[in-house]
Amino acid sequence: MRSTVPGPTPAGDTELITRAAGGDERAMAQLYDRYGQVLYAVAYRIVGQRADAEEVVLDALAQAWREATKFEAGRGSVAAWLTTIARSRALDLVRARSRRDRITATAATEWPDASPAMGGWRSDPSSGVEYAERRTQVQLALESLSPPQRRAIELAFFEGLSQSEIAELLQEPLGTIKTRVRLGMQKLRECLRPFYFERGR
Amino acid sequence: MTQPESETLQDLAAAYALGALSAEEASRFEAYLAGSAEAQREVAEYREVAALLALGGPDAAPSPDLRERVLARMRPPAARPSAAPRRSQAPWGALAAGLVAAVGLGFGYVQLREVRDLRARLGSAMQQLAQTSDRLRAREATIDALFAPGVRMYQLTASGDPDPLIQFFWDQERNRAIVHGYKLGDLPAGRAYQLWFIKDGTPVPSVTFKPEPDGHVKVEQIPVPSDGKISAAAVTVEPESGSAQPTTPIRLVGNLERS
Fold it and tell me: Is the CB of residue B1 less than 8 Å away from at least one CB of chain A?
């Protein structure tokens, strides 16, 4: 399913993280070239502004650098690990600012603010499926969900809300929210399986 | 709750990977996860799905100089202040960044006399964050223990009562165990639950513990006797100070022999 890359085989993500654990900065730079844009997208979506989102990416990669020895390939890909770190750092930052203020603000506008810097990212060609293609697939997959399913999943991931908090926010039964999350994620999994970021090898 | 425990927990894999479980649900799920390779695969896969979610938003790219700033942060690892080698320090970087940002905003927008109030709020937010990160560290330590190689999970149950459940994680390499109890009933004053190992057919006393008001309990670093054959673990209600021999009927019991 995954498109193959011509030329010499590029280092796998797991190899890069192993080298980073050994103190190799260049490995970290390569990981940044592969996933910096994705991490920025996660951070930006959560914190809603550019300077903070960049700060989050910095913090997240600094943490990944310090904790590279703790990465375990069996638990998922390097990309998923990095994304998890970036999401946590972003949510920390939002919680440190008043969280309530922000939820009211973003409830009014669907997106945090105007779309920042289009393009300008030279994606690492060895990252397999092209960024733009993966993005299209993710958007199609999200569009295939019912709007309430998509909302529940996005509130959980980007607002850091638990299912109970989502139920409270939307004034709906907890069981309904749980079902939306579960079915929505199952559907996304079916659609996106060929487009996961590179698995650790 | 007529559904079997594992089935209910299995349904939580997607929500867990999204970070959408409450702290209590998450720790239950992690206990289950430790013993289920299938659940671990599911969670890993849902994490891949979650990692893609950000691509569904508006297109976004960081400034071109971010790459250089990322590398600059890594370059002088020895020269970084306090060298912060312990991971327990990790969350503070982000926290400090958040506070700096918040203080910056404060000075930009509010009258000076409001700054004091803002500081007080930051102080309490910081305290809350410190407590949260303490709790997280404790949970991470537990998870590390649960995922250690050679750890097996057993269940202790009560006959005729589906509610109380104890998950018994036995690290057979280190002869240590962790007990996670759920929905354990209230105890009269002065009484506690006591754990027993059935060693060579005889009960050997172990720790006593009292559940939280919600019936949950976690006991770590329980020594397991290694000088005989342990066939089962059981729980009775005893005086707080513990008993040398069980003085009441068994409340929960589970077989600890390898199946």
Answer: no
**Distant-in-sequence, close-in-space partners of A26: CB < 8 Å, separation ≥ 6:** A19
Q: Are B225 and B199 in contact (CB under 8 A)?
A: yes
- Which of B48, B63, B132 is the best mutation test for A, with the most CBs of A within 10 A? B48
Q: Is the pLDDT of residue A155 over 90?
A: yes
Q: Mean pLDDT across the stretch B21-28?
A: 91
Q: Which of B35, B30, B257, B42 is nearest to B151 (CA)?
A: B35
Q: Report CB contact under 8 Å: A93, B73.
A: no
Testing the interface with A: which of B25, B53, B119, B133 to mutate, by most A Cβ within 10 A? Answer: B53
Least confident of A155-159, B80-84, B231-235: B80-84
Reference A78, options A128, A31, A134, A19; nearest CA is A31
Higher pLDDT, B118 or A82: A82
Q: Which chain B residues contact residue A195 at CB under 8 A?
A: 52
Residues 128-167 of B with CB under 8 A from A: 129
Mean pLDDT of B112-117: 60
Question: Do residues A138 and A187 touch, judged by C-beta distance below 8 A?
Answer: no
In a domain, A3, yes or no: no
Nearest CA in chain B to A199: B48
CA–CA separation, B220 vs B139, rounded Å? 11
Q: Judging by DSSP bridges, how do beta strands B191-199 and B176-182 pair with one another?
A: unpaired
Please write the tens of the pLDDT for every residue from A96-124.
875 545 455 554 444 444 444 444 565 55
Within 8 A of A80 by CB-CB distance, chain B residues are 44, 47-48, 50-51
Q: Give mean pLDDT, residues A149-161.
A: 94
Nearest C-alpha of chain B: how many angstroms from A11? Answer: 19
A21 and A72 share a domain? Answer: yes
3-state secondary structure at position A182: helix
Q: Is residue A106 part of a domain?
A: no
Check CB contact under 8 Å for A156 and B19.
yes
B96 in contact with A at a CB cutoff of 8 Å? no
Asked whether residue A27 falls in the same domain as residue A70, the answer is yes
Q: Which residue of A has its CA nearest to B24?
A: A162
C-beta atoms of A153 and B40 within 8 A: no
How many residues are present in chain B?
259
Within a domain: A114: no
CATH number of B151-255: 2.60.40
Find the CATH number of the domain harbouring A42: 1.10.1740.10
Domains: count for chain A: 2
Give the mean pLDDT of A47-51.
88
Domain extent, residue A21, equals: 9-99
* ipTM of the complex model: 0.83
Q: Is residue A15 part of a domain?
A: yes
Task: Examine the domain organization and report whether A84 and A147 are in the same domain.
Answer: no
Domain ranges of chain B: 5-58+91-146, 151-255
Instruction: Take residue A136 and report the two structure tokens written for it.
Output: 């299209």
> Per residue in B82-91, pLDDT tens?
444 444 444 4
Can you give the pLDDT at residue B86?
40
Q: Do A79 and B21 touch (CB under 8 A)?
A: no
